[in-house]
Amino acid sequence: MSKLFFTDKPIVGLDISNTGIKVMAIDTKKWSVVGYGAIDLDPTKLKDSLEGNSNYLSDNVKSLIKDKLLGSLPSNHVVVGIPTARTYSRTFDMPSEVEKHLKEAVELEVEQYVPVPSSTLYIDYKIIERNRKNITVLMSAVPKTIVDKCVAAAEAANLKVISVEPGINAVARLLMAVEDGSLPTVIVDIGPASTDIAVLDSGTIRVTGGVSVGGNTLTLDIAKKLEITVENAHQLKVLNGLSAGPRQNKIKSAVEPSLMKIITETRKVIRYYNERIRDDRKLEQLLVVGIGSNMPGIGDYFTNELIMPARVASPWQKLDFGKLPEPAKQFRSRFITVAGLANITNEDIWE
User: Fold this and answer.
1) What pLDDT is recorded for position 338?
2) Secondary structure of the chain: what % helix, strand, coil (to 5)?
3) How many CB atoms neighbour CB 180 within 10 A?
4) DSSP-assigned beta bridge partners for residue 91
5) Which of 4, 15, 218, 321 gives the lowest tally of CB atoms within 10 Å of its CB?
6) Does the pLDDT of residue 113 top 90, yes or no?
């Protein structure tokens, strides 16, 4: 797309995840939400829609825009966030003299580290740092079918897609605006069905990882271990969690196997950053976000397991919903990715 033919219009975020679609428009000068909405998806039907010929995704995008919107959207220009688990992002250093053959060098890196044929991927890259000896390259690769299906679904709802990015990039953008984004940071985004993990350093996602454990997994763990209903398990999770109390040991023993899967993957991402990317910058903090972050004590759990300052991050103190009804407290975390998408600027897109 050429900037020559692009008219600057307010940008709307459209987040497509494995369990739902969210839309949000923000007046970025005032941090005020002018429109937002959400619709839940059946993960199995979404998978069929992304990999087959079903209209399930496009039908739900249309339904969201038509029937589920609170407020209004200032334009039809959207940035689409896609599930991070279906993308591959990493940074790597190369000698400066390789720059003239950068495309071939990136393709070689993709073939080495991405477990699908490069012919089936959209590959993007840019130089994010340089010194006299080396350049640091950020590479992102996404299956073409995922991008094409998500773009087609948005266009079916008369939306004009101007950019596509992994959901974790949008989360990082929001955290940089509301937290201390200058510190090298580990982000752990616990969604309903999966967890995305990334390292944010100097305003850029350096490496990503993920695991198929999410907030719903933890709820089911508690229900099974304590032999209670899923509804009661959810209440225990969000009210008691891992905080000190008479039920702490039972809840902790129920969720610990799943939490350790998240911890193990987080350690892998940290190790990759330390060994392959930066040995001169220490990771300073870990921020937990997403629907699974509503479990009391989870920040302390990560602090103790990883020996790193960890806490739950919340951007909501900065977002103003004005006269629009705010999302219920237990549902706010599901909007963090779409808020990051809606916070993108034209400069971010055309840099």
Assistant:
1) 95
2) 45, 25, 30
3) 11
4) 138
5) 4
6) no
pLDDT of residue 279: 66
**pTM to 2 decimal places:** 0.89
335 phi-psi bin (left φ>0, alpha ψ -120 to 50, beta other)? alpha
What is the residue type of 39? I
Same CATH topology for 1-87+144-177+317-351 and 180-314: the answer is yes
Look at residue 211 and tell me whether its pLDDT is greater than 80.
yes
What are the distances in angstroms from CA 302 to CA 180, 191, 197, 285, 307?
A: 19, 16, 13, 10, 8
- State how far the Cα of 192 lies from the Cα of 6, in Å rounded to an integer: 36
d(CA 239, CA 296): 7
Per DSSP, the residues of 294-338 read GSTTHHHHHHHHHTS-EEE---TTT-B-TTSPPPPGGGGGGGHHH
Q: How many residues does the chain have?
A: 351
Q: What one-letter code names the amino acid at 90?
A: R
For the cut 90, the answer to whether the pLDDT of residue 182 exceeds it is no
User: pLDDT of 261-311, one tens digit each?
Assistant: 999 999 999 998 888 776 677 899 999 999 999 999 999 999 999 999 999
Domain ranges of the chain: 1-87+144-177+317-351, 180-314
Please tell me the class of the 180-314 domain. alpha beta
For residues 62 and 46, give the distance between their C-alpha atoms in angstroms, rounded to a whole number: 15
**β-pairing, 32-40 with 70-71?**
antiparallel
CA-only gyration radius of the chain, Å: 20
Closest by CA position to 253, among listed 210, 221, 288:
221
Strands (E), the chain: 12-16, 20-27, 32-40, 70-71, 77-82, 88-95, 121-130, 134-143, 160-166, 185-190, 195-201, 204-211, 285-289, 310-312
CB 61 within 8 A of CB 69: no
Residues with Cβ within 8 Å of 178's Cβ and at least 6 positions away in sequence, in order, are 313, 315, 317, 318
CATH number for the segment(s) 1-87+144-177+317-351:
3.30.420.40
